[in-house]
Every structure is written in C-alpha cells, then in structure tokens.
Amino acid sequence: MKSKLLEAIILRENNQSKEALNILEKLLIDEPLNGTIYYQSAWCCDNLSLEKEAINYYQKAIKLGLNQTDLKEAYLGLGSTYQAIGEYILAKETFLKGIDCFPENNAYRVFLAMVYYNLGEYQKGMELLLQLLAMTSSDSDIQLYQKAITYYSTRLEDKW
Prior knowledge:
Layout: H1 2-13, H2 17-30, H3 35-47, H4 51-64, H5 68-84, H6 88-101, H7 107-118, H8 122-136, H9 140-144, H10 146-153
C-alpha cells in the first residue's frame, strides 16, 4: 500500500493528477478508513478542477484523522476550495478553524482576508492584512512604521 501511495504522490507532484487519482481510488477500496489517501485524493481533485469532489475527500480526510502537517494543509485546501466555488461562509469557518488549530500558520489569515473581501467585509480584510504585514514583514521601511500600521489598521475610517 505504501509504495502505491508514494507512487500516487509522485504522479501528483509531476502534474499527473488524473493518474494519481486512479491509483488512490483503488487504494480506498482496500483502505476506506485511511485519511491520508482521502487527503491525497482531495489534492488531486483540486488539481483537476474537481472542486466538489475535492470537498468530499477533504472532509472525509479531516474526519478520519491526519498527521499535523497534512491536517494543516487539508484545512487550507478545504477552505480555498470552498472559496473557489463561492461558499464564502464555509470558507471563513474553515480558515477560522485552521487558525484555531494552527495559530502560527499565517497563510490562513491571508486566505481569510480574501474571504472577507468576498463577503464584502473589506475593512476586516484590510485590517487583517495590515496587521499581518506589520507583524511578519522583514522590510526595514515597514518595520520602521510597524506601530503606526498596527494602530491605523483598526482605524481605517477614522478622521482626526
């Protein structure tokens, strides 16, 4: 099983997601409770623009359990797939769950900011991005104004 799973991963990494998915679907017949196979299947479906199928695989993978690295990526994949099909509330909930489970992963915040944009919550999205920029940028000019950027990030509409 491991060699077939590895073969499927290598195929996916080499832009042969359809072939990889064929292998993974066969593996699921023998191992229907293996979260890793579902996760890899979701990734292949995403690559093939099969978003609705990807969602089902992501959900099953998360439910069955994954190692921490794969779980971190699965939440991001699921959230961005929801976003791609216009399910912005589900995307928001998924990214917030990802932030709750993996607070150190700032990619969730970037994707969440995009979802805020999709939801018309422009101020929330901009605030989140500005705070993230101030917190993570190594650019010396941004660091020089870090406190001001953070301060104004929550006061974008204020006038003095």
